[in-house]
Amino acid sequence: MKKIRKSPIVLFMLALILLYVIIYIVPSVTGALVSSYIVEYGELKVADEVTGYLVRNEQVYTAGTTGTANRYIDNGTLVRKGTTVMEITGGADGEIDDKFSQIVDRLGDDAILTSDYAATKGGVISYYADGYERRIRPNNMKNGGYSYYSKLSQDSVQNLQRDTVVRGEPVFKVVDRTKWYIVTFVPKDHGARYKTGQDVIVEFEDGTVDAEVHSVTADVDGEHTRVILACSNYYEKYMQMRACPVTLVTYEERGLLVENSSITKENGQLGVFVKKKTSGSDFVPIKVYATDGVRSLVADTFFDDAETGKRYDTVEIYDEVLKEPKN
Fold first, then answer.
1. Mind listing the UniProt keywords for this protein, alphabetically (predicted)?
2. Which residues partner with 220 through β-bridges?
């Protein structure tokens, strides 16, 4: 009799378990098998995350005397020609620090040996140098490919601000403020995203600048496209960075999004298959404005085709689109 009385309780528990499976487990398992989705609005950001190599017109000054440094100008300050940047007083002879000797070696005879520590031309004062100021300039930045630039490191950049200076060591540099450049290398198949004269937003870890595409060239390694960007906007660290992570944003808009796996062709026309309310699906022409390789931002409701002169009805919000239509 006890077994019979417990039966309703057991049945009730089984019903709860079955209900749980239907509500929670079945959808999560079958979700991977879903063959369609609902089209909605969203943000599409087309960007490349790469390393940016900063190139400037700049001149490094080395100390003509040994002694204690007294700096009059802060890092990042714009000065006129003839401005006294610092002075060095007292002191005896000494040996150049190893980390500075590497910079001096790279600079060769390009550095300006100064005893009055005055800027010979106007520009922004920087107390950071790596010795590549001579080797990498706007007039020769196109000479290097990915194999050359990828060896550059921010670790080579040294802070020149210290109390004691030895004759011949780098002490400051003057950087052109009018224009500077960022050399980047994007994957070969992303090269089509960039055109000379195009506007690009460059996102640094701590700031954003507007830039213009200066040149686009296939790299000799066959795997990259070299994109050089020209900047005239001020970025606080532009005079001290050599290599740093950047994000190049070529497109960022809000609109109707479809998955690239949905896009197919019918009689030469791009389109997607939209499910009917009853059964089956219809091919619907689309116009793609931009893609990030996974999703595409497309025209909404209708679009005009300049080549044919026709107006096409197209996808709308909440249409149900097949994920992977059979061509």
1. Membrane, Transmembrane, Transmembrane helix
2. none
